[in-house]
# Entry
Amino acid sequence: QPGPLLFKERPEFVWGLIASMYTGNILGVVMVLAFVPFFAAILRIPFAILTPVIVVVCAVGSYAVHSNMIDIWYMVIFGLVGYVFKKLDYPLAPLVLALVLGDLAENALRQSLIMSQGSLAIFVTRPIAGAITAVALLFFALPVLTPWWRRLRGAVVPAQGAS
# Structure
């Protein structure tokens, strides 16, 4: 059982795990150094040939997860969303973050609402949850409040897109 007493109860397991990490890192370095010429050769392949290969490998990987065609459609849709984001100079990090953390956040929200029997008050009545909610609301409101605050203080608000 993992936990705080793991080092005391099963030291042979812990040190074996640490030794396997060292071994894995050493083998990883050796493999990377051995395959550097291969990776460099891949960079010489024309983009027009490499792109379809990457798309096919991604599609096979998407399909392999659940053996369902809808996963390939998800891949295509989110690929198009990423392309639009890139064309509009929108950072891709928020999209990736949303895709990775969205499911976890949704499950945590559902669990919180079940614990509170559907009441949203759970997000403001507990001290830590209230502080996190207040900070999140402040960050959402900052883009709107900053120009308003500057106008109130008499400062000049720079125009959007001006350098």
Observations:
- The chain has four domains: 10-44, 46-90, 91-120, 123-153.
- Residues 11-42 form the longest helix (32 residues).
